[in-house]
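We were asked to recover a plausible sequence for a given structure. The inputs and outputs are reproduced exactly as logged, with field labels preserved.

PROBLEM: sequence recovery
POSITIONS: 194
GIVEN STRUCTURE:
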């Protein structure tokens, strides 16, 4: 019994560190130090390294967990949504809850550990797969132009990333996705709909 209580406490501390790192990196960027994370998480600096052997390991595990969460949410949506419009809207709703972190992730890629591009590519590939399911249904129903699903997805991501990476121009004082999400979706749909 004692061992399981200790293990539970260890898992809770690890999760607290991950959640705190998520918030700190979202607010301060990936140059934030582990000392900042430890202070915010209210743990000793050494505790970070008990759970994560290195900063790179912490960042990699955080981004892996983030990618898994996005993929799981997209999987659930793709199974139940039959409309590309509702899928795009729902995807933007998901990203809205992570906007600051996601912007840091795509804008500071070069600062991240060398395995992170592979983690991001895997996440994008999984999301693209789920998009392709919905896009294929719409192409078959002749509601979307017969364009390769990969091109439709990449065009969507390019448009989305352009706005997010230039948030300071489009929406410097408030979150971008709630402000422009419906407009981005509407314009994109005009491009791909039959």
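RECOVERED SEQUENCE:
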């Amino acid at each position: 019994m004692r061992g399981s209580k200790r293990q539970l406490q260890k898992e809770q501390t690890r999760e607290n560190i991950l959640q705190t790192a998520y918030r700190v990196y979202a607010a301060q960027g990936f140059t934030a130090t582990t000392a900042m994370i430890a202070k915010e998480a209210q743990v000793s600096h050494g505790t970070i390294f008990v759970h994560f052997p290195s900063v790179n390991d912490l960042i990699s595990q955080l981004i892996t967990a983030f990618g898994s969460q996005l993929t799981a949410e997209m999987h659930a949506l793709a199974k139940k949504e039959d409309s590309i419009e509702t899928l795009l809207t729902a995807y933007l709703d998901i990203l809205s809850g992570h906007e600051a972190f996601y912007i840091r992730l795509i804008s500071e890629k070069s600062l991240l550990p060398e395995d992170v591009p592979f983690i991001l590519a895997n996440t994008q590939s999984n999301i693209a797969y789920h998009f392709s399911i919905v896009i294929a249904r719409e192409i078959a129903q002749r509601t979307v132009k017969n364009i390769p699903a990969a091109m439709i997805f990449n065009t969507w991501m390019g448009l989305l990333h352009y706005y997010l990476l230039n948030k300071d121009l489009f929406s410097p004082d408030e979150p971008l996705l709630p402000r422009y999400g419906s407009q981005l979706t509407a314009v994109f749909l005009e491009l791909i709909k039959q």
